């Protein structure tokens, strides 16, 4: 065994000892409100398939037809991988998002790391909410820009940092924030952030992975919902969640998007999205725009679920959306809670550090529009009884 083998073994032992070991467990059948895992039927409170569209016949048919154009894109975008259908998608997307231009990426992760590292340079400064997604943090690290992490949704702290950075005579300033926070389910106060960005001459980038398709008119997203579309310079979002497909986009001013196309390494040096995915995304945007009923069902289900857990005494943080955390404290307790729920037919993965701050382990429930009353009732009962058993409530 090499010294490196030994070191990996030690590192894994540490992960295990700290209760942080994770496993990828295969699921079978469609990942809908109910799924099958290890032969067991579970109510699924862990997916990002918020509107239940991942198995929608319209999307599947569109992807089948898309596949007829070829199994793969054959090259990166700037070589020969930019299909006519992708260009059409980007036009539709710009008009949907209310921006001059837009560009699609293979995933939200690559969009964030690529855009942030191409926009920001050493000497620039970036203000990032402390609970922003890992891909934002990684993009900032890659850029070499100076990082200020402000306390979660704390605009006094952000303003203080903007003033502080002003003194250094620093060049470009970017504020970046998730819209709907992925582990907390609360919404960033975008209108106030836009005011601050204007006061200090900064730019603003939002990550609308969890707001797109869910919030705003026709699911246009959080900026539309809060009436600040114009105030946001960079709209980033994914097609992997409410849209039920895969891939991501960045939308904004024409010149800035053109700059991204010319400099963004995670876009330039990767094979473009395959035709089947592009077709799926186009069909999904059209469907999402029409399905106000699904958005209403999602809100209704989320409110019932959140209110009942709160009434039972759980701490659901600042959640006002379909992402609903239940704070349990320690990593081990989160795992135990999740295991006990699984025995009762409810799937919710415990979220532990380093995904969330130390001492803030939680169960994170994500609701779906397509859940039935019986699913909700069974899940809520199991969560309350398990919470009582473990002394969480
Ligand atoms: N941003 C946020 C806020 C996310 O929650 C995620 C997905 N977990 C991503 C970006 C990455 O998106 P994708 O899964 O498409 O890579």
TrEMBL record:
Report a single Gene Ontology molecular function: 8-amino-7-oxononanoate synthase activity
Q: Name one GO biological process term.
A: biotin biosynthetic process
As its record notes, the protein acts as a catalyst of: 6-carboxyhexanoyl-[ACP] + L-alanine + H(+) = (8S)-8-amino-7-oxononanoate + holo-[ACP] + CO2
Taking every annotated instance into account, which residue ranges of this chain make up the domain Aminotransferase class I/classII large?
Answer: 41-383
Which keywords describe this protein according to UniProt?
Biotin biosynthesis, Pyridoxal phosphate, Transferase
Q: Does the keyword Transferase apply?
A: yes
KW Chaperone (keyword) present: no
Q: Which InterPro entries match?
A: Aminotrans_II_pyridoxalP_BS (IPR001917), Aminotransferase_I/II_large (IPR004839), AON_synthase_class-II (IPR050087), AONS_Archaea/Proteobacteria (IPR004723), PyrdxlP-dep_Trfase (IPR015424), PyrdxlP-dep_Trfase_major (IPR015421), PyrdxlP-dep_Trfase_small (IPR015422)
Q: What is its EC number?
A: 2.3.1.47
Which PROSITE patterns did the record assign? AA_TRANSFER_CLASS_2
Q: Which residues carry this modification: N6-(pyridoxal phosphate)lysine?
A: 241
What cofactor is needed? Answer: pyridoxal 5'-phosphate
Q: Could you tell me which pathway this protein works in?
A: Cofactor biosynthesis; biotin biosynthesis
What is the annotated quaternary arrangement, including any partners?
Homodimer.
- NCBIfam families per the UniProt record, alphabetical: bioF
Report the protein's function: Catalyzes the decarboxylative condensation of pimeloyl-[acyl-carrier protein] and L-alanine to produce 8-amino-7-oxononanoate (AON), [acyl-carrier protein], and carbon dioxide.
Q: Which family does it belong to?
A: Belongs to the class-II pyridoxal-phosphate-dependent aminotransferase family. BioF subfamily.
Q: What is this protein called?
A: 8-amino-7-ketopelargonate synthase
According to its UniProt entry, this protein's organism is Marininema halotolerans
């Amino acid at each position: 065994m090499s010294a490196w083998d030994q070191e990996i073994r030690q590192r894994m032992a540490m992960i295990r000892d700290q209760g942080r070991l994770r496993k990828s467990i295969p699921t079978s059948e469609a990942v809908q409100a109910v799924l099958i895992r290890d032969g067991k039927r579970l109510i699924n409170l862990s997916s990002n398939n918020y509107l239940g569209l991942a198995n929608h016949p319209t999307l599947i048919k569109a992807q089948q037809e898309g596949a007829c154009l070829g199994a793969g894109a054959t090259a990166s975008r700037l070589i020969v991988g930019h299909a006519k259908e992708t260009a059409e998608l980007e036009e539709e997307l710009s008009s949907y998002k209310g921006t001059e231009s837009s560009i699609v990426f293979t995933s939200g992760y690559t969009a964030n790391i690529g855009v942030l590292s191409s926009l920001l340079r050493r000497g620039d400064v970036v203000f990032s909410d402390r609970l922003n997604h890992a891909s934002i943090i990684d993009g900032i690290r890659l850029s070499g820009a100076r990082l200020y992490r402000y306390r979660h949704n704390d605009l006094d702290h952000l303003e203080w940092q903007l003033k502080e950075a002003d003194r250094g005579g620093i060049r470009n300033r970017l504020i970046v924030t998730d819209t709907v926070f992925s582990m907390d389910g609360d919404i960033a106060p975008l209108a106030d952030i836009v005011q601050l960005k204007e006061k200090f001459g900064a730019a603003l980038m939002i990550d609308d992975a969890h707001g797109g398709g869910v919030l705003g008119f026709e699911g246009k997203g959080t900026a539309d919902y809060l009436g600040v579309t114009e105030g946001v310079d960079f709209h980033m979002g994914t097609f992997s969640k409410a849209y039920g497909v895969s891939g991501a986009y960045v939308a904004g001013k024409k010149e800035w998007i053109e700059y991204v196309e010319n400099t963004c390494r995670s876009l330039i040096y990767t094979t473009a999205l395959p035709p089947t995915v592009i077709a799926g995304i186009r069909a999904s945007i059209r469907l999402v725009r029409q399905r106000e009923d699904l958005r209403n069902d999602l809100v209704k289900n989320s409110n019932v679920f959140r209110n009942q857990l709160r009434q039972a005494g759980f701490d659901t943080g600042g959640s006002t959306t379909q992402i609903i955390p239940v704070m349990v404290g320690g990593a081990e307790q989160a795992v135990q809670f999740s295991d006990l729920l699984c025995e009762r037919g409810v799937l919710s993965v415990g979220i532990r550090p380093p995904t969330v701050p130390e001492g803030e382990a939680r169960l994170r429930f994500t609701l779906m529009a397509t859940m039935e009353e019986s699913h909700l009732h069974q899940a809520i009962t199991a969560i309350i009884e398990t919470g009582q058993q473990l002394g969480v409530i």
